[in-house]
Amino acid sequence: MSLLSSYEGLRQEIQRLAQENEELRRLVQLIQENQELKLVLRNRGSSLGFCSSGLLAEMATSPRLPRRRTIKFKDAERVLPGLPAEESLLDSSPVTMGGPEGRFHFAIDRGGTFTDVFAQCPGGHVRVLKLLSEDPANYADAPTEGIRRILEQEGGMLLPRDRPLDTSRIASIRMGTTVATNALLERRGERVALLVTRGFRDLLHVGTQAREDLFDLAVPMPEMLYEEVLEVDERVVLYRGEPGAGTPVKGRTGDLLEVQQPVDLGALRGKLEGLLSRGIRSLAVVLMHSYTWAQHEQQVGTLARELGFTHVSLSSEAMPMVRIVPRGHTACADAYLTPTIQRYVQGFRCGFQGQLKDVQVLFMRSDGGLAPLDSFSGSRAVLSGPAGGVVGYSATTYRVEGGQPVIGFDMGGTSTDVSRYAGEFEHVFEASTAGVTLQAPQLDINTVAAGGGSRLFFRSGLFVVGPESAGAHPGPACYRKVTDANLVLGRLLPASFPCIFGPGEDQPLSPEASRKALEAVATEVNSFLTNGPCPASLLSLEEVAIGFVRVANEAMCRPIRALTQARGHDPSAHVLACFGGAGGQHACAIARALGMDTVHIHRHSGLLSALGLALADVVHEAQEPCSLSYAPETFVQLDQRLSRLEEQCVDALRAQGFPRSQISTESFLHLRYQGTDCALMVSAHQHPATARSPRAGDFGAAFVERYMREFGFIIPERPVVVDDVRVRGTGHSGLCLENVPKAQSGPPRVDKMTQCFFEGGYQETPVYLLGELGYGHKLQGPCLIIDSNSTILVEPGCQAEVTEMGDIRISVGAEAPSVVGAQLDPIHLSVFSHRFMSIAGEWLPLFHPTARLPVISDRGAWQGVPERKCDLGKGQKQNPCWDRAGSVALALALDGTAPLHLPAVGRVGAFLYQHHVVWDCHSVD
């Protein structure tokens, strides 16, 4: 950087550069005007800086990509010796970045440990950036800081952190964030009151009685998101035509209903005013049968908003699906998280001039689609962070012509997320997160608490990885975590790891601290091996480290097996798409353990979630409940419902500026066999319409095919019922991938040699720089491939090849047979523990959905399998939950005789009946 201490020095520097660039020559005359000075630099490989009592600004160009730079000063005569520090020279007016012809597109993934920024800059080139998500000593908000740094780098100007950023050069910002997830995990959401139909105040607290660990003797009580409960005087039941019943009304599903009691708004008003006086401003309204009769909830919501509640979540709007318990939890989560999200978004907008008024701001939702701010709610944001990665690998790894399905493996600092893509996104519509069951469309992402920052423990003779994490502000002092194990094994090079730790954000990883931390664990292990019940050989520090890596790998294989084998898929038939900051270090080992032969690692694998946000589309969904049978006589009605929802989706996307040519829709039906609770959301895009199907496609064939694949049997004698009708509209808006030139000829250059520890000991390992590799280069393992955001380990017996797009594709060799002896080995015990749990993990997903007893399908109490045939499916005639003799009706025989489950509880039933706690199964939601 040149140090210019006088006006004359500045003039001479510009004249020198003008000899290299004709455009600059025309600007030399600006020096004479003693006015605002603007410099535009187009040549490559130069740098120009200005200092006066310290750094004022620096302007640099990339050696590979052209840049446009603009630096703005106050009048030039002030750039003289002896002036105050650079702050006094900065113009207080906004600083812009060049001409109006190009603007920036930002895609930001704010994870639990790191925030990744992917920026498409004017001219089409790309900049990427990784920074800590939490660094309060240096900046308040990581996404804003990431945008500021890229604008500063691209513009060659100093942008103070205490001033709002100019948005004139920002076209769009797309973000995936873990704000909602963290608020749910840490219970840091809004104060919420639950409004529920009278008589059901403890409904959500009782829930389904499902336990996370069925055999845990210390069962934790569920922690509710709401703070207070108000019972609403209202009642809607299914119409049964009994004597004395009122006039029936038709609900949205087509079912006949009886309004036994309208909403008493007068009595409710005083209760709501009491909530306001106690400081509660967010409500969740959950009324019986609101999925089909929403009028009562709408009346309550209107009154609450008139009284001044800032957020009101209606269960009929949050997710209009049957089953009040998950629907109620979803409404509570929405009321609990949405105000938190809105506060974060408002704080983020305050970091920009005009609060991003003229910038398109979109947020990733849990279903893998982008949505504007007004559609980004708490119940749809829990998987906002990992959803971007699914979109990223689906767009960059899956090949339509080959048809080979892909397993996404996203290993971050806190956890690892796995998912599957085979040409379409796989969604679930009921899932539990942090003890809360959410009934909302989410990408089917399985998470395990093992990541690069997961801490390592030795407990009761077993190696344990996680679930504790070192957090997002960890270093450089290490905390006995997976990253430490890889560092001790030589699989991470501190010189290539981002130097972003410590108070100054400039310290690298510390191998000495890692060895010291793991030595403490090794001491515990060897003490157990020496003094335990079966003395065994001591383990070296490296053997302890590689043992923890093996256990972590096995822990991360479990959700992959649950996602494939438990769904009728062969994991070995998949490609493993590995990404996340820590994913490349474990890719080969994970693939080998699962029998996969191919690993695909994108060139931006360390930031693929951010890239996925750039490639994602805007999505609008419309869904409504239904109670029709899937039969020829109802196909016309189903087509009409689908057409109406499709029109809603198209209109909503057109309102956001999408022309019809950029909008596509896909129709779904939520189908189940009558008498069962297991409904599958199926699309018919692979099953064209026939003479015996709706015009939208043969949903029946799609349902039977999937049911058979997942559960291994079908029930052809039972009719199929439609629970919900859904249409997903997509506004195609993803940014185009940059073109990557083909490689230059010549062998790959080895940057350095290092020592890495594998099962057989240390091996000489070459290190390659990803930026220097080209199309067609082949690298034999073992080797390390390094870039600024990730490290890829190619294990012995594997071969890596650079694809035409600059990605890494690894052919995985067969794993050497493992010899298990009789001697005590805590590593093998830990691995087997995970494999035994995988067996249960594969079996239970088959058992629960196909069970016909609510005590099994809802509560998950599969140890209470009845001995006699019984059926408590939907639509079956059932006795009251407690009969007049006080018998339990959790599971009655078909002839209505003795209960099959927990007969001793009958005394409780008698007590409840004596106190009039009796209800009819036909009246419940």
Task: Describe the protein's architecture and organization.
Pfam families: Hydant_A_C, Hydant_A_N, Hydantoinase_A, Speriolin_N. Residues 637-801 form the Acetophenone carboxylase-like C-terminal domain. Keywords: Coiled coil. GO terms for molecular function: 5-oxoprolinase (ATP-hydrolyzing) activity. The chain is α+β, with helices and mostly antiparallel strands. Helix content is 27%, strand content 21%. The strands form ten sheets. The chain has an eight-stranded mixed sheet with strand order 22-17-16-25-26-37-36-33, with helices on both faces. Helix 4 crosses helix 9, helix 11 packs across helix 12 and helix 11 (482-488) packs across helix 13 (541-564). The longest helix has 26 residues, at 324-349.
Q: What's the quaternary structure here?
A: single chain
The low-confidence parts are 1-7, 26-101, 469-480, 864-905
Specify Rg, calculated over alpha carbons.
Answer: 31 Å
* Helical proportion, percent range: 25-40%
**Strands, total number:** 37
Shape: globular
How many H/I helices? 20
Strand content: 15-25%
Q: Report the structural category.
A: alpha+beta
Widest beta sheet: strand line-up: 22-17-16-25-26-37-36-33
Major sheet characteristics: 8 strands, mixed
First-last Cα distance: 72 Å
- Quote the average pLDDT: 77
